[in-house]
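Now read the record:
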Amino acid sequence: MSETNPAATAPVTADAAPHRYTAAMAAEIEARWQDFWDAEGTYAAPNPKGDLAGDPELVARPKKFIMDMFPYPSGAGLHVGHPLGYIATDVFARFQRMTGHNVLHTLGFDAFGLPAEQYAVQTGTHPRASTEANMKNMVSQLRRLGLGHDKRRSFATIDPEYYKWTQWIFLQIFNSWYDDEAKRARPISELVAQFDSGERAVPGGGTWSALTEAERADLLGEYRLAYASDAPVNWCPGLGTVLANEEVTADGRSERGNFPVFKSKLRQWNMRITAYADRLLDDLDQLDWPEAIKLQQRNWIGRSEGARVDFPVDGERITVFTTRPDTLFGATYMVLAPEHPLVEKFTPAAWPEGTRDAWTGGHATPTEAVAAYRAQAASKSDVERQAEAKDKTGVFIGAYATNPVNGEQVPVFVADYVLMGYGTGAIMAVPAGDQRDFEFARAFELPIRCIVEPTDGRGTDPSTWESAFASYDAKIMNSSNDEVSLDGLGVVEAKERITEWLERTGAGAGTVNFRLRDWLFSRQRYWGEPFPIVYDEDGIAHPLPASMLPLELPEVEDYSPRTFDPDDADTKPETPLSRNEDWVHVTLDLGDGRGPRRYRRETNTMPNWAGSCWYELRYLDPHNSEQLVDPEIEQYWMGPREGLPHGGVDLYVGGAEHAVLHLLYARFWSKALFDLGHVSSAEPFHKLFNQGMIQAYVYRDSRGIAVPAAEVEERDGAYFHGGEKVSRLLGKMGKSLKNAVTPDEICAEYGADTLRLYEMAMGPLDVSRPWDTRAVVGQFRLLQRLWRNVVDEDTGRLSVADVAETDVDTDTLRALHKAIDGVRQDLEGMRFNTAIAKVTELNNHLTKVGGPVPRPVAERLVLLVAPLAPHVAEELWRKLGHTSSVVHEDFPVADPAYVVDETVTCVVQIKGKVKARLEVSPSVSEEDLEKAALADEKVVAALGGAGIRKVIVRAPKLVNIVPA
């Protein structure tokens, strides 16, 4: 560290108190110390090796890896709500440095995404140009807050040297399969070896060597963790792209743009995240995450135990998954999702003889009926399809299936209340036990058979019922054949017996199902990572060799995907990359021994989630061009250790809205990389903390349009804008709501340290709180009082008393050490608001005592403030005569002798009413406390000579006397 003293260059202003802490002084101090920190590399976290290796003493310390969720560089810049989490992690990181840790804390940018692309479409500005301008602005705003980031480690996902490794990870996943027996991913080459040797049978018979190249590619595609398939997807014509399930709102519209979303079958890239469903679920138990987030992930993964049942149809079969195989005897029809691939296969050219008119939808043939119904279903969202609507819709496909337990022929329908996204996309309908099946059966005049004995007195004749009856406690009835009987059994025993029968007869098997679907990984956009995949003349996908990475985005004239009429579900995507013929069609030598060949590049791009699936690893080793991350460096920062069985980041702070998107995807990538031996951490983030939101009042006029909050006047409890009364409601802060306050504004008026203190003092970090600009001044005054306790406002000289700690009065020492003890615990527990309250209490005590503050007290007060208000702490630390930065000073440790109170107040009650208060030693015994209470004059008077039946003593704070 440099021995220069930037505090010596502070200017002197000529006013009544020329050295008072003012906004102007704060701005000068803050800019000067920020320059100093940058020049000195104050926040550089050394690695154990490599180009970021540094001080061996720091490396030998316990390490802490502290992360914020990736910010997206918005063109609107930051408002005061955005830095809440960044300030909190900065305070915590500073505290960890001062308590002897090597702390890695940095920040990059998640810079691919739709907003920049939409801006490019509107203006013609290249997305990179607008994104980099936005990043520059945000870096400036964040720097002004004094955040202690290791800037050597920062990057953006749009940097080719970064997304080279995003592409590389995709190739590792593409070249892998999940071994269900070993419960881990393995290289695809090992699967090929199994097929080639005969260790694993080729499906359908034959040998591996006899398969064509296309047949081999198709077979491996059934196993790869990254694969392309023709599957139902969420197609959004208004955006010109497909969307993941998580990007579609509950009412079936796109999260961005609010356009209608339709189900359509397209060839898309997918990630087989479902292979990891069990591990993603089970390993949640080992993570230090909010229970609410764990619950969301558990519900999203949706593990359920049941049975797979096969219903024969014309020599083939429809497979269903059910959690209630015990109700199989009550299945009187089947339903396929409209998108189910077997619908077309089983739909005949003509209606079978005897088909009821109610089943046909008024169409002349099953083909017409199914086509019309599919078109109708495609216009509905999954939520709309599953809504408990009174009127159930569907059509008979013209085929019958065989119920395996009783041989009955049951009609097969398509209906929109069944989704491809759950189970097999087919259900056995048991109308007696499911309300939706019950309503459908009534609407289509289908049989309803009672197979669970009702316990509510309704009787066993479903024709008299008004609703279905479902129970896990009732007995099974009407459920037997020549080989198995469930009658009289409870649900649990019946499930076990029928599952055993299904397995014995080959009609099905016990199984586990998950709600989780494979991750749709293609986007029809320009501004994203290109896939490192090319196709040969036969359409077979080939991975690019690592030597050809990064595959950079080409220049295109038009950045927009082709958008369509938002309501036209029959359109198909056209991507921006497909318009660059010179880039799409290339001659390459892939190093496979075949020499140069002509290929066609993949013209979809990866979703914006790709870059944030692994960015924690890049922070560790950001300049490594040869490896994803050096194993020793990854092990040092993220490897498993005591209390962290799966490894991961020590603290990850961000919003709860990413529970089933980023957090689930990142966990999947981490586990795949762990299985393949690239990392030692099977989980990316060990501890997760969700910060609350800073809210602001939104003011709206009579039209419901937001008006500028800064222009609203309050009169007699009402609010007016331009003389018109407006409404007020607490909500989000944002530019569109005209209530945003920028950190630049607050820094200009009060300084960054004041903003930091105010945001941390507003309330517990994990709850939302309203912004109040008028209240900011309170923290500014705290800093002014702190300044006055160390610096003479008239002369600028130090005003502390150079005395030994033994000469400090006991009350002050007690106030100091209680503050040290409390602040230390609060900072460790991220209770920053109560830590500030304790600092304020100590500072107020010193102000009240008056006179020069003893140096031992002043120095430790500055150290207590340092994580919270680092600029003023640095300035005061130098003024106190120190030449090193306060950033790496030791945080004060409390003397236990001064933390424990000399006396505590004991309340004495008679019949539950307080009659006296005693000042007693904290260590007083119950016997001595009882004697003191009974001897107290007020207690004696209150008893009035009455006898005592019982005395309850809770030393040292309570004595309860029960008179006779």
